[in-house]
Amino acid sequence: MKAWTRAARSGPEIPDGYLYEKEAILEYILHQKKEMARQMKAYEKQKNEKKAELEELTKAAKESKVKGFLEKEMSIVSKPLNPFERRSGSGGLGGQGLRVGTEGQQQTR
């Protein structure tokens, strides 16, 4: 059976003289629907990968920031202050401050 005969039997003819095969049109629509679904799935996968990559970069940036802060904090060197020792340059009482003796009694300078 020739293609034009099959088309003439299964499809309508419009006044301009074109023949349309209904089965071929439906196959094309089905094919396009499947192709669009495949492309949408690929797009969603790509979008999720990009989102995961962005989240990973954000997490790495935060960790880097925290690490930098901790390194700076650990590099600060200070010795503990003894509140009972007189520091040089403190001039609150002009050298007339109180001193704690070894027996725990206060002595005036």
UniProtKB/TrEMBL annotation:
GO terms for cellular component: nucleus. Residues 99-109 have a biased composition (Low complexity). Residues 89-98 have a biased composition (Gly residues). Keywords: Coiled coil. It comes from the Eukaryota. GO terms for molecular function: ubiquitin protein ligase activity. Transmembrane segments: none annotated. Residues 26-67 form a coiled coil. InterPro entries: NOSIP. Residues 80-109 are annotated as: Disordered. The keyword Cell cycle does not apply. PANTHER family: ENOS INTERACTING PROTEIN, NITRIC OXIDE SYNTHASE-INTERACTING PROTEIN. This is Nitric oxide synthase-interacting protein.
